[in-house]
């Protein structure tokens, strides 16, 4: 029990340190929202505020900014967070929760679907490769898996959007669903959501499944060489039972921590992909916030991503012992 | 373009224009020569109530009307700029504007109607951008920068003030960028009588909720702009915002009156009024106007302004030809407002604005014909080549462009001789060519003087008429290294081992700029390599956009910086010189001294070399009345 408390305490400490460091670092960023506005005005003709008005507002803001020392701002912010108040987004003039909240399901939809696809395809493929160890299929798949695993997701995303999106016009190049549809539980809407999500999801899944497949293959081959498998075969157990209960279970077990960490990235795993596909999720707003120097929104997104990650790792840690009784014994056996 | 054809005032504008366009889209030009002029003659007249004048496309080359007193002041300021180079104007920008022609009837790309700010705003209103008979396209598709669902339409908030504003709201007046003439629109007519400006509101215009557009709405719009720091304030209530309410009033349902604190040049007043959109709908903004009018202290006023500038209006009530329908993450949809006075000119029902947050996505959307046009978008040559033949590209003078800005408190550029040497070394044609990435959307400045209109030839034809030979070109298309060397030697530099040095220290010119402005970066790199070739140690230091504008630029932390060299908002020379000599940018960021020494052009205006240009700028604002 004391291990669980210690482990939770450490997670809280991690979150606290990350939040504090982000708070400090963000304050070191030069420029503010109005400077972004000025750049936007010049580049896009995007604002009708005149230079004189922008300058007047910058002057007005500088007067406001000097009133509280950084440590006071820090204490105020940290206490507000514990009350669940993430403040107001400067760029969107609404609460940070109001900006990020509606974006969460869309990001989770992309990342969770991609993870599910990559994991199931990867594990099945890995098992099959182990079963056919040494065959042309195994060698070929290993090669493909290696190549895909070392390709960054954004490269695939850019290729997809350039060819499947713009050239062949098979898929939409942005957005969550077609504007004509009414959101809700109706078939055309759900189909459109899937259609719009296809390229972003595939960009993430394609580069990830190779990794899962290779780990699964390695683990399976190791398990296949174990003595207890030989015993199982000698006992005349059915192949199906051996494959599922002996090989699969033991081969997947070491991947459990990796899976939990991957689940921890559901919020932060699609930052670049969302921007490439103009898909307004958490990562999309994070980049907007960074460009516009919208510090409350940046902090909100960072905190969300950090907390999800820490929860993923903590859950992996706390439950691993339950899954694998050999690892019981606490602090000396961490999984990361 | 050489300097030879500068003398002829009437011919050169035409020839330069045609030259540029011929360069531009070699194949497409043939079609235009025939139909452009004729089509252009018919359409503008009807909708022009106030400005009058320009009826035919050929008149675009007529010199801008200006009185002799103003002209002398403009020339003097231009001369001071030319001789002291507080900034070095490198190029003028032409906005590329795109229209698809297969489903749409639009004026040809070099016709006069296109020369407006912007075609997508005005052409549909005048019935000059219509859905063609054989087209099935009932909806015009354009692009917007911000996520539609996050867009808002409070101009005083300014953030995410998205493109649909252009169809939801009407501007006070229209302005032709080439002839520099105003014509009435929402403000259908105006009259300046001494210190009183009277504005007439267009008859029969209603808000989208059915209430009439009145002079009070126009007054509220102007008042909120003034309270928010808008530029009219210096003419209306220069000392105290407390009397704005008495000075901007509605005298009846359709007449608004502004009492000015001093006499002001009409062109300058109109320049401030013309671009305003009427947004101040009583129900949404009336409360702010009342509170600002009644505020008793400037603290009280700032707190009301704070509320106004953070207010988000996501479903606006406009009075333009299209009314707001809905917005999601991908597009904003607006539909035709049948009660708008110009609704009969519009033969399509809807406009949609698709979310296209990058130049790349906008290029591709035009190439795919997903969008039907773009008001202004920089498109490099390799992308232009991919455009289908049905998409026409017109070039619109922007009266603005990239310049090198000097920090007047930093060595070595605090010495005007060094600035001039830099000007001589830099080949502006090369800079413009590289910055334009194979397009003709950047034209090198011929006379660095703070005057714009390079495309139509008005710098030579109007502004500098008669005094042109006094002006230095600093070599538009060449590196005048001999002249630069002489100036540097005079300033105490010597060339040793290929590098210019003073007291053993090499002459260093670092150029800072915003990394996200790719055309500027290309221009700066060209200048840097030219300077290095000449023996000046130069480098380009590009920073993240927000960091550049928010730190380096505003803190004056630069020796040479990239910045537009003319007023971004208006094209009359007054605004350019005001920006250069009488703006917070000049005083606070570039550390411009108030008084400088410069040779005299018109000795009736100045005696002696010492001059305070800001005073001339103020004189110009009231000249000619």
TrEMBL record, chain A:
Give membrane topology per the record. Multi-pass membrane protein
Mainly localized where? membrane
List each copy of the ABC transmembrane type-1 domain by range. Answer: 104-315
GO BP, one example? transmembrane transport
The record's subcellular location field reads: Cell membrane; Membrane
Q: Which domain of life is it from?
A: Archaea
GO CC list: plasma membrane
**Name of the protein this chain belongs to:** ABC transporter permease
What's the source species' lineage?
Answer: Archaea, Methanobacteriati, Methanobacteriota, Stenosarchaea group, Halobacteria
């Amino acid at each position: 029990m004391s291990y669980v408390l210690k482990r939770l305490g450490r997670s809280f400490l991690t979150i606290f340190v990350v939040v504090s460091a982000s708070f400090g670092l963000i304050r070191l960023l030069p420029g503010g929202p109005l400077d972004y506005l000025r750049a936007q005005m010049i580049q896009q003709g995007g604002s009708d505020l005149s230079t004189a008005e922008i300058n007047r507002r910058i002057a007005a803001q500088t007067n406001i900014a000097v009133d509280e020392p950084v440590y006071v701002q820090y204490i105020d912010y940290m206490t507000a967070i514990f009350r669940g108040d993430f403040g107001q987004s400067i760029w969107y003039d609404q609460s940070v929760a109001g900006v990020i909240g509606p974006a969460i399901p869309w990001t989770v939809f992309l990342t969770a679907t991609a993870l599910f696809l990559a994991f199931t395809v990867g594990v099945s493929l890995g098992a099959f490769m182990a079963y056919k160890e040494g065959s042309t299929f195994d060698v070929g798949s290993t090669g493909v898996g290696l190549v895909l695993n070392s390709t960054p997701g954004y490269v695939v995303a850019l290729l997809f959007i350039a060819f499947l999106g713009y050239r062949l016009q098979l898929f939409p190049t942005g957005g969550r669903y077609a504007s004509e549809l009414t959101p809700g539980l109706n078939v055309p809407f759900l189909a459109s959501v899937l259609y719009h999500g296809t390229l972003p999801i595939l960009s993430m899944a394609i580069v990830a499944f190779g990794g899962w497949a290779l780990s699964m293959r390695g683990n399976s081959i190791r398990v296949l060489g174990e003595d207890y498998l030989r015993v199982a075969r000698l006992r005349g157990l059915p192949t199906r039972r051996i494959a599922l209960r002996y090989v699969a279970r033991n081969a997947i077990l070491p991947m459990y921590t990796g899976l939990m960490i991957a689940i921890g990235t559901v919020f932060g795993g699609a930052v670049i992909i969302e921007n490439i596909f103009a898909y307004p999720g958490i990562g999309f707003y994070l980049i907007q916030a960074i460009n516009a120097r919208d510090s409350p929104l940046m902090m909100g997104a960072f905190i969300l991503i950090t907390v999800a990650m820490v929860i993923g790792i903590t859950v992996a840690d706390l439950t691993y012992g339950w899954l694998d009784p050999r690892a019981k014994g606490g602090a000396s056996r961490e999984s990361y | 373009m050489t300097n030879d054809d500068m003398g002829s005032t009437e011919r050169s504008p035409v020839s330069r224009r045609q030259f540029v366009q011929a360069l531009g889209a070699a194949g497409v030009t043939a079609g235009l020569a025939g139909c452009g002029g004729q089509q252009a003659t018919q359409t503008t007249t009807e909708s022009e109530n106030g400005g009058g004048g320009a009826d035919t496309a050929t008149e675009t080359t007529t010199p801008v009307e200006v009185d002799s007193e103003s002209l002398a002041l403009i020339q003097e300021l231009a001369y001071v700029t030319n001789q002291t180079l507080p900034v070095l104007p490198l190029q003028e920008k032409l906005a590329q504007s795109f229209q698809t022609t297969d489903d749409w009837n639009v004026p040809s790309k070099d016709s006069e109607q296109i020369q407006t700010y912007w075609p997508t705003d005005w052409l549909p209103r005048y019935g000059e951008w219509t859905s063609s008979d054989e087209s099935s396209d009932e909806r015009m598709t354009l692009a917007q920068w911000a996520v539609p669902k996050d867009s808002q339409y409070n101009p005083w908030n300014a953030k995410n003030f998205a493109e649909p504003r252009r169809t939801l709201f009407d501007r006070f007046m229209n302005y032709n960028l080439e002839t520099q003439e105003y014509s009435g629109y929402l403000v259908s007519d105006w009259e300046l009588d001494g210190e009183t400006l009277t504005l007439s509101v267009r008859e029969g215009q209603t808000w989208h909720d059915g209430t009439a557009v009145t002079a009070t709405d126009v007054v509220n719009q102007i008042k909120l702009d003034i309270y928010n720091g808008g530029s009219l304030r210096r003419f209306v209530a220069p000392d105290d915002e407390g009397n704005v309410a008495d000075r901007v009033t509605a005298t009846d349902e359709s007449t608004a009156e502004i009492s000015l604190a001093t006499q002001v040049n009409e062109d300058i007043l109109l320049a401030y009024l013309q671009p305003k959109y009427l947004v101040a709908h009583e129900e949404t903004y009336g409360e702010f106007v009342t509170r600002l009018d009644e505020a008793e202290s400037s603290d009280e006023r700032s707190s009301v302004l704070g509320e106004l500038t953070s207010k988000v209006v996501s479903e606006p009530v406009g009075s333009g030809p299209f009314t707001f329908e809905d917005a999601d993450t991908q597009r904003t949809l607006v539909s035709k407002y049948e009660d708008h006075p110009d609704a009969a000119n519009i033969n399509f029902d809807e406009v949609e604005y698709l979310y296209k947050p990058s130049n790349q996505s906008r290029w591709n959307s035009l190439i795919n014909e997903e969008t039907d046009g773009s008001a202004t978008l920089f498109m490099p040559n390799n992308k232009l080549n991919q455009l289908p033949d049905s998409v026409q590209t017109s070039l619109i003078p922007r009266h603005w462009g990239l310049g090198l800005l000097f920090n007047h408190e930093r060595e070595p550029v605090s010495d005007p001789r060094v600035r001039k040497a830099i000007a001589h070394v830099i080949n502006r044609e090369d800079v413009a060519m590289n910055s334009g990435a194979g397009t003709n959307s950047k034209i090198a400045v011929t006379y660095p003087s703070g005057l714009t209109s390079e495309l139509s030839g008005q710098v030579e034809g109007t502004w500098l008429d008669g005094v042109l030979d006094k002006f230095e070109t600093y070599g538009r298309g060449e590196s005048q290294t001999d002249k630069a060397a002489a100036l540097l030697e005079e300033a105490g530099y010597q060339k040793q081992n290929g590098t210019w040095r003073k007291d053993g220290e090499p002459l260093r010119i670092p150029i800072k700029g915003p990394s996200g402005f790719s055309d500027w970066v290309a221009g700066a790199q060209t200048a840097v390599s030219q300077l290095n070739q000449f023996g000046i140690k130069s480098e380009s230091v590009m920073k993240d956009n927000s960091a550049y504008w928010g730190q380096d630029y505003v803190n004056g932390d630069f020796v040479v910086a990239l910045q537009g060299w003319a007023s971004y908002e208006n094209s009359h020379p007054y605004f350019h010189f005001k920006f250069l000599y009488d703006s917070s940018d000049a005083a606070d960021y570039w550390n411009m001294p108030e008084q400088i020494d410069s040779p005299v052009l018109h000795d009736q205006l100045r005696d002696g070399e010492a001059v305070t240009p800001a005073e001339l700028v103020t004189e110009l604002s009231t000249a000619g009345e």
